[in-house]
Amino acid sequence: MRLSRYNIVSSIAGTDQFYIVNLLSGQADVLGADEARQLTEAGAEFPKEFIERGYVVDPTEEASRYRKAYLDFIDGRDTDEIQLFYVPSYACNFSCSYCYQKSYETPKGAQQEAALEAFFSYIDRQFASRKKYVTLFGGEPLLPNDSSRRIVELMVSRTAERGLDLAVVTNGYHLASYVESLSRGRIREIQVTLDGPKTVHDGRRHLVSGGSTFDAVVAGVDAALAHGMAVNLRTVIDRDNLPAYVELAHFAIDRGWTDNPKFKSQIGRNYELHECQVGRDRLYSRIELHQDLYRLATEHPEILRFHRPAFSIARYLSDKGKLPSPLFDACPGTKTEWAFDYTGHIYSCTATVGKAEESLGTFFPDVHLEADKVDCWAERDVLSIPQCKSCELQLACGGGCGSVAKNQSGTVNAPDCRPVKELLSLGLGLYGSVC
User: Fold this and answer.
1) Domains in the chain, please, with CATH?
2) pLDDT digits (tens, 9 = 90+) for 167-201
3) Alpha carbon distance 229, 2 (integer Å)
4) What's the whole-number average pLDDT of the chain?
């Protein structure tokens, strides 16, 4: 018998206790210092309970369980719902301080309607047997011009006739004027970004002309919720706006958004993706952001009414009272996510869409896929990434983001490592641990 290769053990923030998590056995426990020491000291005697809960294992039996869990994961992923992003244009009315699409061009005279019809023909054939939904992406898809309104009308009608849900990612500035049109479709959710209270948001996410956007975005969220649409409010955080997050949380609470079952929130970390940005010193690493979120939530627990950060799997464990299934792959690209744009190109995901060198093929005017490129993405998981194979965190991390890994190392078969131990320590300290 030996210690499991997949034990994750560390301290719980703000306490003198420790945790142990094992995603392969599906067990988690709080430990005292002496118990935690037994899991790290060579030659220690293991309590019977450690064997029963899969922290101490027979290596052959554990390898068999790992293989079964991996096959179950692959089978589940092969039948999971696919999210299909469509970009009708990269044009935008905002000039955000951290935009990574500023260098993207929108060629003149694009055959937008023809490309959109070709997109639906392609997904009808290529994903005929798969459960799927479409997400309208950009650029900014909800612009106040005739061509944008026509594309939205077509997107609403084409998804509705196929019985498909439609999600929309928008800056929210013209959302209120689109609510009636969108309400004719099967709207899954509207994702809108609000980066802080009025002064902070307007300083980061202003119009190209420099004008304020906060009030119009808030009106759009109100209108969507009033029409019964689900709203996913996203806040992109860096060191500049985190101090204002408490005020934003109070704004959302006072406006009644957090009491609406159709409302949820998320946090996006501002980081370098496609190109270097000015002011890199304002960017957080993943752990730095969560350390500051932990501090903020400890000092202002009311913000958890607005958003409960995941802290890796800590929130899931706290909310569900159990662990999630082992994560053999955190990258959805070409498996449960694809992206398409009006130029007729196909991409692996939203992190690569619009980058010419990342195109995997075309759906318009001709259809072809570059199989070797697709295979690189499709085959990526913790078994194909050399650094993941011996890592005890692999089943919680899943290898991270393939696009970030490729940007950093030149290949998708490299890890985008997540600080799982540290995130769990903070999250279990904040939410309490459930065993």
Assistant:
1) 2-75+425-431 (no CATH), 81-309 (3.20.20.70)
2) 999 999 999 999 999 999 999 999 999 999 999 99
3) 52
4) 93
Q: Which amino acid is at 394?
A: Q
Angle between helices 146-161 and 175-182 (to 10 degrees): 30
Contact, 170 vs 143, CB < 8 A?
Answer: no
- pTM score, two decimals? 0.94
Task: Decide if pLDDT at 18 tops 60.
Answer: yes
Residue with tokens 């993943």, as numbered in its chain? 286
pLDDT score, position 158? 98
